[in-house]
Automatic annotation (TrEMBL), chain B:
Chief localization: membrane
GO molecular function: transmembrane transporter activity
Protein name, UniProt field: Branched-chain amino acid ABC transporter permease
GO terms, biological process: amino acid transport
Matching InterPro entries: ABC_transp_permease (IPR001851), BCAA_transport_permease (IPR052157)
Keywords associated with the record: Amino-acid transport, Cell membrane, Membrane, Transmembrane, Transmembrane helix, Transport
Amino acid sequence: MTERSRPGLVSHNGETRIRVMKGLELTKRQAVLVLVGLLFAFAIPDLALMTPSLQLTVVHQGLLFGLAAVGLNLLLRHTRLVSFGHAAFFGTGAYTTAVLAAKYDVSSFTVLLVAAVVVATLVAGIIGYLSLRHTGLYFSLLTLAFGQLLYALVQGQSFFGSSDGLPVRPGEARQPLVFGLALDPEAYAVVLYYLTIVILVVSLLVMWRLVKSPFGNALDAIGQDRTRAQFIGIPVRRYVWTAFVISGIYGGVAGALYAMVQQHVRPGPVLYFLRSGDILFMAILGGFQTLLGPLVGGVILVFLQDVGRDVTAYFDALTGFALLVIVFGLPRGLVGSLRSGGLLSGAGRDFREDPTVITVWVSNGLASLIRSVREWISDVRSALGVR
Amino acid sequence: MIGLENFVTHTLHGIQYGFVLFLIASGLTIVLGILDVLNLAHGELFALGAYVGFSIIGYLTGLVAPPTTLSTQLVFLGIVLLGAIATAAVLVPVGVFLETTFFRPIYERDEVYQIVLTFALLLIIKDVNKFIWGPSPLRLQDAYGGINSIPLMSLVGLTYPTYNVVIILLGLVTVAALFWFFNRTKTGRIIRATAINREMATAIGVNTSRTFTLVFALGAFFAGFAGALALPPRFASLDMGANPLVLSFVVIVIGGLGSLRGAFVAALLVGVLSRWAIWQYPPAELAAPFAIMAIVLLVRPEGLFGTWGEVA
């Protein structure tokens, strides 16, 4: 290992940064945030014991869907391809695990995870080969259709338990063995959670390396202009296909862990196309131009869904309105907006300096509201042909 | 068992199903081909059509006594069709509202925002349906029974619901009307021109934003019409939008993007083949359309008649 790539402190232009690994250097603020985040993530099981409003399974699910969204984001952020069928890979991972555990009595955590990765790779390879011939909306449409194909296959076959799904390891030994150990249910949940955190950190580091590598730069070039990328000698089809498969593997890993956490897999929650929409939404909600955004979006969305379903019967509409707000008001997502320090923090500073600024905001808001209503009316009039 | 009568019955079922599919997919493919937006909320417009149809057709048929003689049966049929058209007309302002309010600001934005926006509308419209009509499925038994009492097919010695024959005939009329509209009328040609080259159309004096609203309203009209027609034999339920939406994607992929003719051929193909599949091997029902799609994609990746921008 050379001097330059050893972990430790380095300084660039007088600013001290902490080097974690080659190519990954954090400012002090970032390092503190990462540490706090990790500590928080590891403390969740203990926190969940203290407050009933925070449930370990909910956070765990959020992290897993977030991991799938991180995978989706590789395509979305760099190649600019909008996959609307990522539940397919999540479901593939989940069902591989469930089928192997329930039908073939495979009990090892590691074997189940590896098998899920293998099958997800195969499925992503096939779907990617067929849908990547097209770009843009046609690609979204194809991924959605293939996702629904898997849903239809699973739903129609009694081998997969149809719409009732499959239990993972039925009978006495309910859980898979973790490294050869049979744990009691509570310990199993916590151990699996910690394992998830470790896998998550590794996945994020791998993703970080990937997007900073020449391969990642090539994907960016492809996303900006396919034809140009082709002309400068990037093997576009092969690279995009590889990215697609990698992104599918992330979904497969997340799905396999999901199956082991839930210990029961149904086609509805893991394969249905609304799930693909959720995964896409997580990426947008957290901010698809960032690495961590999709993960944060996943945790927040699953948490809100869990709380929201208890509060209102019209939770879907609520999610819809939240999406509208994101699309029209916060297009960079939560993490993206925070990082750019944009609108909110500036507004907060103004407010602290002079609280009367709020009247200016209200009048500006009203003015723009009136303006958009006027525009809307004139649009409708012109559409109806009224002069 | 493959008897001739069974074969004819299932084929007719398939053709009827294909026409309903075409009505849904035509709206989607027009919107996709011209506005360049993949409207995930289209299936919910179809569901909305079914619910509105439940109210309108239910109200209209409630005004008349159940038909007994042939003449009252025909009047009854006319009333149901009137209800279906009224339903489709209700969907037009809804479409205009959606296009001007939500779609117009995002035409220039990234694709991902367009998809997320239509996904948001899908969720919202679904809950609007739930709010107005409640969560339990609704059924229009009277309309279906009333029309089926017309002794049409017994004339040729076949037991087949008259309602399905009506759908097939209506489908034929609609297809003819659509092709006539896009090929022969000035507005249809303007729409096609806009699809082929938006800037050029603006340059020669086409009001493109008005064209877009018109196209979207047209899509909503056909979604609503399909919803109202599909309602009588089945239940109107909250999740009825999802399956037709995905099947219309399949139809569009098979037919080729933006091709109305392709959508027509593909809808009939998917309709007939999937009904045959159900007849011969029931578990294949859900997967059959996708299998056809995969084969077509392997052989002709651009679809049967596919080219961008061409509509008819």
